[in-house]
Amino acid sequence: MSHPDAPRAVVFGCAGKVLTDEERAFFAEAGPLGFILFARNVETPDQVRALVADLRVSVGRQDAPVLIDQEGGRVQRLRPPHWTSISPMRRFGELAEKNLEQGNEAVLLAARLIAEELRDLGIDVDCAPVLDLPAPDGHEIIGDRAFSDDPDIIAALGRAVCEGLSGGGVMPVIKHIPGHGRATADSHLELPRVDTPLATLRETDFRPFRALSEAASGMTAHIVYSAIDPERPCSASPRVIGEIIRGELGFDGLLFSDDVCMKALAGPLGERAEAVLSAGCDVALHCDGNLADMREIARTCPRIRADSLVRLARGRPPEPDSAAFDPELAKARILALLGAV
What is the DSSP string of 90-117? Predict the structure, then answer.
């Protein structure tokens, strides 16, 4: 059940570096749960702070979550010269394969550094870490975003990233549940299908997600797992979400769908959002900032459920003790540790 005044169960993007009057009016009327930023929305720290503040003002909620993909490596919306460039997560995995303690230390410091930079801008949710286990024939869309080919190292470093982000006051989002590494296609462009037996998935791809089942939030994969539901991609499959993610893996955090704009999903945007929410996602994610598409989604998107709001509140980390963290010392230590790889 949901309250009639609750936000809608959707996160929206916006088109540019400042809100237009039309966007501002639309967000005020539609009342999305929160927002997500991309490179198109980023120029300078002051500009990003102003945009984040304006987004929250538009919905009249200072606690509206603002998300970003700041993983490190190829996926960093915030880049130099204003923000720190973080090595691909694979580098940390290579260090961990030699010395797990040092790998954990380095990636925790990197995540805390990311969190400090995000909080400075008012951004409070980072769509990281990637817990996908890459397969030898998997599509390069994951590639060096993955920590390792070892599920146990992925789980250990993923936990360290969650601790680093949470310690800096930013909510982590583990992705892409229950595993994107075997996909041989890019779900931005088409619907991948994984035909691996369920027993194999349980022993491999699912393991990092099971190990981090207590994570604050997660994001689904737009992939058909034929051994579980041969008809529907995970994000729109009640069976995958209910029996595997919520059931077998024991994940009870806030569950975002991956971007409903992606071509892995079919049909009108409003129907896609309805499908992922009906399947059991707490929040639909719409990223491209297309106002016409957002209007279509808002016409039918329900208010967020009460249990989803409980998950959101439970997952929000406490305010950090930023005075106890020295970014320059952290950068130097990360460089020293990764220099051994």
Answer: HHHHHHHHH-HHHHHHHHHHHHHHHHHH
Q: 3 catalytic, yes or no?
A: no
Backbone φ and ψ of 290, nearest 5°: -75, 115
- The better pLDDT of the pair 58, 1 is held by 58
Single out the catalytic residue among 124, 132, 258, 259: 258
Region of 31 on the Ramachandran plot (φ > 0 left; ψ -120 to 50 alpha; else beta): left
Q: Encode pLDDT of 220-261 as tens digits.
A: 999 999 999 999 999 999 999 999 999 999 999 999 999 999
Question: Which of 63, 188, 307, 326 is an active site residue?
Answer: 188
Across the chain, what does the average pLDDT equal?
Answer: 95
d(CA 171, CA 169): 7
* Top-confidence residue, 137 or 150: 150
Pull the structure tokens for residue 92: 């940390």
Give the integer Cα–Cα distance in Å for 338 and 332: 10
> Tokens for 282?
């707490």
Closest to 196 (Cα-Cα) out of 213, 183, 177: 183
Known catalytic residue: 258? yes
Which distant-in-sequence residues (6+ apart) come within 8 Å of 135 by Cβ? 181, 182
pTM of the shown model: 0.96
Sequence-distant (≥ 6) Cβ neighbours of residue 108 within 8 angstroms: 160, 161, 163, 164
Residue 272, classed as helix, strand or coil, is helix
Pairwise CA distance, residues 335 & 256, whole Å: 33
Residue 24: how many other CB atoms lie within 10 Å: 17
